Write a sequence for this structure.
């Protein structure tokens, strides 16, 4: 089974999809999006960790996406 989840905070959103990892476990694919009048920004990446359960993978994926947004909005990282 594949789990997915979505969170939205203001003009930012995070979507996560889990996939079975090669060799067992689950990996998160994380998508962040920012909507603005100047144009939309989207970025997707895989969580580096393989998780034992899909529940863990989706929760950690959402947490990682929200952390990424915090770093981006505080201008700690630039992409």
């Amino acid at each position: 089974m594949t789990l997915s989840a979505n969170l939205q905070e203001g003009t930012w959103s995070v979507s996560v999809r889990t996939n079975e990892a090669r060799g067992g476990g689950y990996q998160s694919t994380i998508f962040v999006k920012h909507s603005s009048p100047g144009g939309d920004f989207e970025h997707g990446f895989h969580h580096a960790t393989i998780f034992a359960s899909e529940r863990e993978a989706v929760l950690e994926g959402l947490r990682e996406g929200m952390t990424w947004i915090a770093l981006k909005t505080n201008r700690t990282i630039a992409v």
Notes: The mean pLDDT is 90.
